[in-house]
Design brief:
This protein has 22 helices and seven strands. It is an alpha/beta fold. Strand 6 and strand 7 form a beta hairpin. It is globular, with a radius of gyration of 25 Å.
Length: about 525
């Protein structure tokens, strides 16, 4: 009965996500159709999986779908990609894989969150409130953004989410990070490992760490850094007898494999090395985001460790050392540009810093809730505090739901674009190369057709700058790239780009107009 109630509680915690996705599915103009991809990068997750179905190599590995042909060696493997490929094989429409997957993984995440809380704080008086804050608490990013806009004016600061990286899409707290599709899966595995550590299920730690390592480079190294640091500390410094001798070497071996595969092996291949260099961006977690994002949980953690306890006593508990090391490793990775070449430092946030601080701060949270429920006036103060704690996510979700989509994007296409994709699917194979200056159609073609795009995703297209330059030369002088020769080419012409349209039409001897609509002209051609 208790287990059933906990699953129902987890389902209740998932309702903000259901509200968000319902808003996405129904709050748009009649001309648009949801693709099922709520964010730009989401397409790539299914495009990777489609390589298993479209490639002729028959390998357990897949190659980058944003290459320009099928000749590149398959070098990648991710557990979720294999699962998505299975769904595609079953006939599930590409766009309708990620939303159910995200909701299921989020439900499991919330169930794990409840289990972790109950293990750490059994018989807690404020269990329900605390778990809601655990799932959907935040910081003061929205409030700070509001006052920033108030001070500088809406002409300078165009959004109250100005201090929240990526307008909130980077997910600096736990709940927000789950919206980003596969992040819910990574968090599920991450929390599963933490739960296994707390429950001393050592074989589960090793197995789930290996699965996460194979699933994502950023979250994998973050988890393995945390677990390896904790195991080293427990075995060498604190002589923890409960941890088996084989666990630390096993975790270190997975860590070494992770570093070898992602930092050495993949970089032996030119196409991956190109993408890796393009992705080495200094997307930093700035101080004006750090302070409002972590001020509440950080202050609670400090009070728990230094005010309610003596630090020596607080960190004498193995579980508190785990969450302290979790915070130190996650915060260091999220700011690694300080001591090494940056590789998207923000990728290491995703709520991991916030979550470790929240757990450390729960004793202080309970202390203040006890103090603030002693009288009616204090209960009003407590309610205001709770609403403030939840404000980042409540306001962000409301803003996403109320915003009505009215222009085509990777998240919504119109009937004209759908007709084009249906036609392209009939006229393309895995030997076809799609070329266009309009990024949307070539990018979405990776899931709606078997063809390869010349240029699509701005970062994961290998040799992106060279390809953009080659396309520019073609438009300027008619010079075609050597790799286009003896290929079946399909040019996707946005009619607003008159120069590109006129240049493609010069290939009249070898070209056929497949379709012409109000916005696009699709021409099939070949270059001998």
């Amino acid at each position: 009965m208790i287990k059933t109630r906990n699953w129902l509680f987890a389902l209740l915690l998932t309702t903000p996500m259901l509200v968000f996705f319902l808003g996405y599915l129904f709050n748009h103009t009649k001309e648009l159709k949801p693709t099922g991809f709520i964010q730009y990068d989401n397409i790539s997750y299914v495009a990777y999986a489609k390589q298993y179905l479209d490639s002729e190599k028959g390998s357990i590995f897949f190659s980058n779908p944003f290459n320009d042909n099928d000749n590149y060696q398959p070098i990648y493997f991710q557990t979720q990609t294999l699962l998505f490929a299975g769904f595609l094989k079953m006939g599930i429409i590409p766009g309708w894989i990620l939303i159910p997957f995200t909701l299921i993984c989020s439900l499991i995440c919330f169930r794990l969150l409840i289990a972790i809380y109950d293990h750490l704080f059994p018989s807690s008086k404020f269990r329900t409130i605390s778990i809601w804050l655990f799932a959907w608490g935040g910081g003061l990013l929205t409030v700070s953004g509001f006052f920033t806009q108030l001070i500088y004016g809406s002409s300078i600061v165009n959004s109250i989410f100005i201090l929240d990286p990526g307008s909130g899409w980077w997910g600096l707290n736990f709940g927000r990070s789950l919206f980003f599709s596969c992040e819910a899966y990574y968090h599920m595995l991450f929390l599963s490992v933490i739960y296994c550590l707390l429950k001393q299920s050592w074989a589960g730690v090793l197995a789930l760490s290996a699965i996460l390592s194979l699933s994502h480079p950023f979250t994998g190294i973050e988890l393995l850094g945390i677990t390896s640091a904790w195991l080293l500390t427990e075995k060498i410094i604190f002589k923890n007898k409960h941890i088996p001798d084989w666990l630390l070497p096993g975790e270190l071996l997975i860590l070494l494999f992770h570093l070898y595969y992602y930092l050495y092996h993949l970089n032996q291949f030119d196409d991956h090395r190109s993408v890796s260099e393009q992705y080495s961006l200094n997307w930093r977690l700035r101080y004006f985001s750090i302070i409002p994002a972590y001020c509440i949980t950080g202050l609670l953690a400090l009070i728990s460790a230094f005010k309610l306890n003596k630090p020596g006593i607080f960190f004498s508990q193995s579980q508190n050392r785990l969450f302290l090391l979790w915070f130190l490793i996650a915060f260091s990775l999220a700011n690694h540009e300080i001591f090494m070449k940056p590789m998207q430092p923000l990728h290491f946030t995703r709520g991991y810093i916030w979550t470790s601080l929240f757990v450390l701060g729960v004793p202080a949270l309970h202390y203040f809730l006890i103090k603030l429920t002693a009288s009616f006036i204090k209960r009003i103060i407590a309610t205001s505090f709770l609403l403030l704690f939840l404000s980042d996510n409540l306001i962000w979700i409301f803003d996403q739901v109320k915003s009505k989509a009215d222009v085509p994007s990777t998240s919504y296409i119109n009937s004209e674009q759908k007709k084009i994709f249906d036609l392209l699917n009939k006229h393309t194979t895995n030997k076809t190369l799609i070329i266009g200056t309009d990024e949307l159609v070539p990018y979405l073609s990776t899931i709606y057709t078997k063809a390869y795009p010349w240029f699509s995703h701005i970062f994961t297209t290998p040799f992106a700058e060279q390809k953009k330059a080659a396309l520019s030369r073609f438009i300027e002088s008619g010079e075609t790239d050597p790799s286009w020769e003896k290929r079946e080419l399909i040019f996707v012409i946005d009619k607003k780009n008159d120069r590109f349209k006129k240049r493609v039409e010069t290939l009249s001897n070898t070209s056929t107009v497949l379709i012409e609509s109000s916005s696009y002209k699709i021409i099939q051609a070949s270059i001998k």
